[in-house]
## 1
Amino acid sequence: MKTTLNRSVRLTAYCADGPLPSSCFALDEAPVGEIEDGQVLVETHYLSMDPFPRLRMRGDDSMAPQLPLGSVVIGRGVGQVVASRAPALPVGTYVAGELGWQALARVDGRTLRAVDPTLAPVSTSLGLLGPSGLTAYFTVMHHGKPREGETVVISGAAGSVGSVSCQLAKQAGARVVAIVGGQDQAHYLLDEIRADVVVDHTIATPLAVQLARACPQGVDVFLDGVGGSLHEAVMDLLNVHARAVVYGVIASYGRADAASEMVPSRLYQLIQKRVRLSGFLIADHADEFASASAELSLWLAQGRVRCAESITEGLENAPAAFAALFTPGRFGKQLVRLAAAAR
């Protein structure tokens, strides 16, 4: 019997500071084991590049349990079932979930969700119609709740969450101030997403100065996936009864002192202004995923929301695509396309 080999990317070294260099990863090839009852074998088509796994590659457990060296790098993906011992997921079904950085994934079928390829390209199940879009949907619609005429500031606005958040806030009639990193992102937010004002944290003009000019009436809603000094600069401008929702701190993910950087400040301002500061985890809304995804897919079909994707070709280039998450310039959902997607 012919042995099926699986290609994967494994973590070989930890790194506390900055984006992980390519030397921390290794491309591996090994036989695929037999699937067990309840499992499926998934041929991966796209991998999602998300910042959170960076916390599991630091070499200490202060932020999250560390990924054991030699393990396949964790990550979401979408692909097609090529072997199944899970009745609910027959061969040919498209599924999304935690597949890891590998061409073939043996996965418990209960951890996957079926994807309908007739609604939209399957890659959108990792972006607009997946965790990124859902995070934007719930942070805007359920937590920030912008009202017409209010000023909404969105950090990381060119990313997979931020770009959708901008569009949803605009639909609500808010004035959207988008914080970006570079002129390519700025043009994208202004020309494609139609943000009202763009603030570029990479230029010489201090961020605080740019924000003060962009928000002369203060800030009513702040949606933040970045943290760090950017977070502090916006917090200084919050209005009375403003709403701030924090769903990520990507600015600190590659820093050795990340834990200390995440201590809240401006506490007296929060009291004086009666600001509602809330943390956000997408898992809290699991019961509402189906209805939210249906609404987002309808808006996509109607042209009410746009879906931008930046695609890197080839599993072997996943480490470089992952490192690019932590540098300015790219926009939209960051994906790696595997060879299977072309068939």
## 2
Amino acid sequence: MKIVYNSKLNLRFSPKKILLLVLFFSAAACDSFVDVDFPKSQLSNTAVFEEYTTASAAMADIYAKMRDSGILTGTQFGLSVQLGCYTDELDWYDTSSDASFAFYTNTVLPSNSNISSFWNTSYNQIYACNAILEGLKSSDFDEMHKKQLQGEALFVRGLLHFYLLQLFGGIPYLQTTQYMQNSRVSRIPKNEAYERIITDLKTAAQMLPPSYLTSDRVRPNSFAALALLARIYLYKGEWENSEAMASAVLQQKSLYHLKTEIDQVFIKNSNETIWQFIPSLTGKNTDEASVFIFSSGAPPLAALNESLVSSFEKQDLRKTHWIAEVSNETGIWHHAFKYKESQSSGTSKEYSIVLRLAEQYLIRAEARARLGNLIGALEDLNTIRSRAGLSSLQAESRELIIEAIIIERRKELFTEYGHRFFDLKRTGAINTVLQSKTGWNDTDILLPLPESELNLNPNLLPQNPGY
């Protein structure tokens, strides 16, 4: 287990503290989410929470694990690549023996290793959040720092359950580290899971400070929780709540504003960033750039689907700045070029952005349109279009404006954590759009539960339809 030293957190540990952290994280690293109790022969995690510095490092380690593995990793095994292949964003060029090939051909089975990774790493990270929440109950440091860490743990717990809910449907909602309880857990209905997610995020928003702990925005603030709530309310169809949460974020002009230069959106100090992951090493940049960028054809891994590339208007700056073309005598391919630093540099120039401001404009635009506020909806939509160098759209019917917003989301948010898949699902367009895709079935709107987990815990049954 490697403890990453981050100078920006100003954490310096004695050998004893390092040992406590190693034991804590080693105990939390389990193969299955039901195997989550500390062995009695190991040190109790209580010692980690004697001081804020070690407790804060425990929380920082969760972010490092989210960056490196699981659903939000920028590697080829995260949602950006897997769901890009699953829908109509990416074409797969690597070997057919790779587990990712099944996503591209829509032949995912319960035994797929990437499915197991989504499930197990997410629940292990959720377990670590629960361990922090339980450990903080016995901590003696000041209440302000305690609330901040509690808010962070609740934010991450809600976020991870949210993604699991979108992928698998009804899921277990884990709020404890108790082995026996977790080993027998059952799935809960979608609406109940949503309510627990919302409760966690509302509480997180109250506990987290409005300001960032560090200037690089790698620890969430209260507005990160509100930004995620805006998305969740949009998915649930609670338009007024969605508009209110997005507005609360967009009103923070001193913290957030759109970059006028489109090439500046994905740099590490962008004022559009609401929350992001710091690279693992000084000078390292994003895994996303390493995965998406290629310099010669045929692509070594994946390339943008041509239907996506051709959907951009010729004058759209996102096409000329966020997409790059590679060609040779045998063909022409395109890759995502939002992140441009695929190699290490003297200092890190780009971080992996998880939440950013442009999405909040599009969330509020859609919520306003569905509430009948077409003028306000167009204002938000045209803010994003204007930055992309496009002309403003004029007042149309409610349905046409909503359609235009969904189209804009496809162009603005492509290859970012599965937005396309989730948008097609929630709007009911997924089967129509993907019916011509090889292997697509109506039941593919949900992924299968991992076979290994069903064998361990029959209470998770039944398996999702179609598997």
